[in-house]
Amino acid sequence: MLSVENLHKSYQVGRTTYEVLKGASFKIDSGEFVAVMGPSGSGKTTMLNCISSYIPYEKGKIKLGNIQMDSLSEEQLADLRNRKLGFVFQDFMLLDGLTIKENIMLPRMIAGKTDHGMIDTAERLCQIFGITAIKNKYPAEVSGGERQRTAVARALVNNPLMILADEPTGNLDSKSSAAVIQSFKRAQKELNATIFMVTHDSFAAAHCDRVIIMNDGVVNNILQNHGNISQFQDELLAAIKAMSEEVTA
Length: 249
Ligand SMILES: Nc1ncnc2c1ncn2[C@@H]1O[C@H](COP(=O)(O)OP(=O)(O)OP(=O)(O)O)[C@@H](O)[C@H]1O
Ligand SMILES: [Mg+2]
Hints:
Number of domains: 1
Mean pLDDT: 92
Oligomer: single chain
Bound molecules: adenosine-5'-triphosphate, magnesium ion
Order of helices and strands: EEEHEEHEHHHEHEHEEH
Number of strands: 10
Radius of gyration: 18 Å
Largest sheet: 6 strands, mixed
Low-confidence stretches: none
């Protein structure tokens, strides 16, 4: 589904070049829910932005489905972002002037897919995420958890190849975080969604099928979930601790 191969990205600040991604490689299968963890500054958001094609990179290959991204023009990349990817942001980014249902339909409108199936799809997503009763309300009139479920539904309305999320639970209390993770799990189970989530939250990551651990611009480790969430969370914390000891040693 997604393959990232030997990705290199640096930022130029004045005359200095900062190498941020130094040859990151990994693969994600269709229908997988994968998290990326790693220290602040290790390049997680940069990598997500390269995959979203928000920022250019110098070297490496990114393949999404059967699309080789480095062969696309700016216009084709914008189209890919609008039609093939779904985004969930830390602060949800719902539009206050639109109802819950209109917010969910927005990416379809942007992609120009306003056919009759659009309303049916939005209604179905409202049902799956338990927000049918509030679909005609405005974001200011619903709870934080309902807003976040709306954001997940919105990310799915174009039937994207993949959902990309950067710290979607970053601003939330533990109960709302759990609701977001449950929404992703439901999207995976009911819609076979593929989800790629950057997170600092080991509890959230422990619900994923696999966790990619990044350090200093490369993939340091990839851990597989064998089904026991608390055991997997312990393994993740141990892997992160071992990595930081390696760095300071
Ligand atoms: N636009 C930019 N210009 C210059 N340097 C940048 C830019 N964006 C990020 N960086 C630098 O690149 C490095 C990696 O940043 P990135 O945001 O990818 O880290 P991260 O792993 O997402 O960290 P965090 O966990 O804090 O979100 C950091 O050292 C950061 O200062
Ligand atoms: Mg980040």
